[in-house]
Amino acid sequence: MKKELIELKVNGRRHEVAIEPSKLLLDTLREDLGLTGSKRGCDDSSCGACTIQVDGTPMLSCTMVAASYQCDNGAHEITTVEGVAEHGALAAIQKAYGDWGGSQCGFCTPGFMMTVRALLQRNPEPSDEDIRHSLSGNLCRCTGYTQMYQAIKAAILAEQKGMARGNERTEEE
Amino acid sequence: MSLPTFKLLRPRTVEEAVGMLHRYQDEIQICAGGTDLIPSMKQRLFSPKYLMDIRGIEGLERIRVTPGLGVELGALTTLTAVEDSGFIHKHYPVLHEAVKTVASPILRNMGTMGGNICLDTRCLWYNQSLQWRKSCGFCIKKDGDLCHVAPGGKKCWAAFSADTPAALLCLSAEVNIASPSGFRRVAIADLYTNDGVNRIKIAKNEMITSIYLPESSAGYSGAYKKLRIRGSIDYPLAGVAVALKRKGNIVEDAKVAITGVNPAPHLVPDALHALAGREVNEHSAMVVGELASRVAKPLTTSLLTPEYRREMVRVFTKRAVMAAAGAEFSI
Questions:
Q1: Cβ neighbours of residue B313 under 8 Å, at least 6 residues apart?
Q2: Is the pTM above the cut of 0.90?
Q3: Which residues, in sequence order, are bridge partners of residue A9?
Q4: CA within 20 to 30 Å of A73's CA: B12, B23, B283, B326, which one?
Q5: What is the CATH number of the domain that holds B20?
């Protein structure tokens, strides 16, 4: 099939790419834009490793046709894990994941980052139940999730203190 | 895995969309959220020449309340939007309960109400890769002429696996269907065929544009119970929706529907008869469970045995009736 020129807005920048109309967004991000943070896990929309955000909403890039998400009229602002860092420094949640062992082999981590980020943007003070519910579409085979919940709480605390000091461990620990 | 090649169509109006459907009838697939279609396209269950992305059509993504009539849900309203709607939660709790069990939170951000109603039927022998299906000699539903589930049979028993239609049946919902000659309105109860292959009575040049919940169904208490392997994702292997209208503790109206076991969702006949004019208690809930399990005809279309799924329809119906009545129950 002939390639077509489309425009995607990814992490705040516009990109023109020539792709086949049937190309998946995940492949376009990874192969055409070199954004290999988003991972292909199950490839059938069960694992969440390919999670990205479109206009702030987490979605699965392995189940999206890239040409359907062309930027038009301000819609379809795509954010990948590469766009999470703020001004060259790790975001609070990224730092906390490192400090608390929220990430081990790391394959699922970019997907989790995008889901957690969306949760915290929508609900800055989620309950344990909110966190578990919102992460229920992302799978991790290493951590057992507990460290992730700790990391998320640490990141919330760090955000509340106004600085990313996610490694400050509390007395309760 | 990559998708089979297609040309992408992006209509901006319903008229344009049905025009495209009419022109390319056998070569086109409608894609809204894509959560059902795209994994199936990877498995080569569909290889359309044209893929019509309808998300660009204005006005199909909304929840509109008209006092005196009811609620109109646009076909492109995401499942998350329905889940988050306080109005739906308050007035149509059975739909709220059903919608929040669909797949995972991320998939609900993508999947739409129209898509959930049009979900393909599912079977262990169908939802597999091309290589897998080829190795087994294909099946009636796709590319073959035999059924592995009911050998010798000519009917496809793939199970209808959407959650919300069971709730919509309880609410006497209707769908608005657009075609090149205009619109028609069909009750959800008349939409499905109980045939795993041609599961839904929507012509190739038609598409669902909205769903109506009548005002007369508002205020029913409701519950939805679902059997699945993984609690956070997965299609129903059995699903039961219950809506009750009570005066004091006495049941005035009751609707019970099951999904995930037959090739179509079904209302349970006589459920009202078993409950009307009485209080809900374990005994009457159990009777309804028995009635529901008689409607369920599961076959080996999933990893769980048909016997277990049918038994779970009975148990979950009992639990759902009790939950809808706000009653305490032991099992």
A1: B238, B240, B258, B261, B289, B292, B293, B295, B296, B298
A2: yes
A3: A14, A77
A4: B23
A5: 3.30.43.10
pLDDT value of residue A173: 42
The verdict on residue B148 lying in a domain is no
Q: For the segment A116-162, what is each residue's pLDDT rounded down to a tens digit?
A: 999 999 999 999 999 999 999 999 999 999 999 999 999 999 888 87
Residues B38 and B21 in one domain: yes
A31 — contact with chain B (CB < 8 Å)?
Answer: no
Instruction: Please indicate whether, in this complex, the C-beta atoms of A59 and B110 are within 8 angstroms of each other.
Output: yes
Q: What is the ipTM of this complex?
A: 0.94
B5 interfacial to chain A (CB closer than 8 Å): yes
Distance from A33 to chain B by nearest Cα, in Å?
17
What does the block give as tokens for B311?
A: 């038994």
Cα four-point dihedral sign B145, B147, B150, B152:
positive
Q: A65, B233: Cβ pair inside 8 Å?
A: no
Question: What's the farthest any 2 CA atoms get from each other in chain A?
Answer: 61
Nearest-by-Cβ selection for B105 from A45, A67, A136: A136
The DSSP 8-state label assigned to residue A151 in this structure reads: H
**Using one digit for the tens of pLDDT, what is the confidence trace for B71-107?**
999 999 999 999 999 999 999 999 999 999 999 999 9
Closest residue by Cα to residue A166 from A83, A81, A101, A86: A101
B70 and B50 together in one domain? no
For each of the domains in chain A, give its residue range(s) and CATH number, in order of start. 4-83 (3.10.20.30), 92-165 (1.10.150.120)
**Rounded distance between C-alpha atoms, residue B119 and residue B113, angstroms:** 10
pLDDT tens per residue across span A147-159: 999 999 999 998 8
Residue B242 belongs to a domain: yes
For residue B11, the enclosing domain spans 1-55
Q: What angle do CA A111, A116, A119 make, to 5 degrees?
A: 130
In a domain, B150, yes or no: no
- What is the 3-state secondary structure of B91-132? HCHHHHHHHCCCCCHHHHHHCEHHHHHCCCEECCCCCCCHHH
* Cα–Cα distance measured from residue A71 to residue B95, given in angstroms and rounded to the nearest whole number: 33
Residues of chain B neighbouring A1 (CB-CB closer than 8 A): 5-7
Of B55, B103, B231, which is closest to A68 when you measure between CB atoms? B55
Do B178 and B103 fall within a single domain? yes
Q: If contacts are CB pairs under 8 Å, which of residues 99-158 in chain B contact chain A?
A: 103-107, 109-110
The span from the CA of B282 to the CA of B328, in Å, is 9
How many independent structural domains does chain B possess?
A: 2
